[in-house]
Amino acid sequence: MGFMYRLREALARFFYGRNGVDALGWALLFAQLALSMLSSLFGGVLGRVLNSVGLVFWFLLIFRMLSKNLGKRREENARFLRFWNPIKARLSSAAARRRDTAHKYFRCRCGAYCRVPRGVGKVEITCPKCGSKIFGKS
Ligand SMILES: [Zn+2]
């Protein structure tokens, strides 16, 4: 048996019954990386504060990875996802709208996006959600 195989087995044994890295774990990792990069940009007190917060995130990450209290960790992860999923959905639909060059999107007062083909000229859109009118140029 090769060394890598044994290492993988050992890691699997070690993490068996532990939480490992979940979505919140990744978020903590990225937040920590971002904070440590920011802290290197800012010197002085602000840099030290950012660095300390990043260190707290790092400890949280390690603690959650190694934790055997799976119920509690899953609950934390679920709470994080309840907060994060709407943001993620908004970001990914904004990216999809940017990619879509064949349409122009108008934002209604009610928050709905109305899609119109590009290059039609002046348009009057009736929002399918609330029925109010939008005037625009596509
Ligand atoms: Zn509307």
Descriptive notes:
The protein is α+β, with helices and mostly antiparallel strands and 138 residues long. The chain has two domains: 3-99, no CATH class; 102-138. The chain contains four helices and four strands. The strands form two sheets. A two-stranded antiparallel ribbon has the order 1-2. The protein has a two-stranded antiparallel sheet with strand order 3-4. A hairpin with a 5-residue loop joins β1 and β2 (113-117). α2 (23-41) runs antiparallel to α3 (44-66). The radius of gyration is 23 Å and the shape is elongated. The mean pLDDT is 93.
Q: Spatial order of the strands in the main sheet?
A: 1-2
Order of helices and strands: HHHHEEEE
Name the beta content range: 5-15%
Total strand count, please?
4
Largest sheet: 2 strands, antiparallel
* Structural Rg: 23 Å
Mean of residue pLDDT values: 93
- Indicate how many domains the architecture comprises: 2
Pairing-aware structural class of the strands and helices?
Answer: alpha+beta
Regions with little confidence, pLDDT below 50 for 5+ residues: none
Residues in helix, %: 55-70%
Shape: elongated
Number of helices: 4
**Are any ligands bound, and if so which?**
zinc ion
Q: Cα distance, first to last residue?
A: 65 Å
